[in-house]
Write a structure and sequence with these properties.
Helix content is 60%, strand content 0%. The protein has five helices and no strands. The protein is elongated and about 50 Å long. InterPro entries: Cro/C1-type_HTH, Lambda_DNA-bd_dom_sf, TransReg_Diox_bact_type. This is Transcriptional regulator. Keywords: DNA-binding.
Length: 82
């Protein structure tokens, strides 16, 4: 969620919209927009986030997690080769 909040803030600023203007556009409070952007809101409806992202031309998608976490040895090998 933190990355989504950062993305929404970035997109809003690119469009030169205030939090209040974005909130009004989607029938939300400015506090809700601030909470989404700062990842401080306890719960936010997925439809709200999806509507905002769609408005900016983005699509909310889900991707599978890695089935296992990398081991320390794997991370060392990856960092060594970079």
């Amino acid at each position: 969620m933190e990355n989504i909040g950062e993305l929404i803030r970035s997109l809003r600023k690119e469009k030169k919209l205030s939090q209040a203007a974005l909130a009004q556009q989607y029938g939300m409070s400015r506090t809700t927009i601030s909470g989404i952007e700062n990842n401080t809101i306890a719960e936010v409806g997925i439809r709200k986030v999806e509507a905002i992202l769609n408005g900016f031309g983005y699509e909310l998608t889900a991707v599978p997690r890695q089935s296992t976490r990398p081991t320390l040895d794997t991370l060392k090998k990856v960092n060594f080769h970079e």
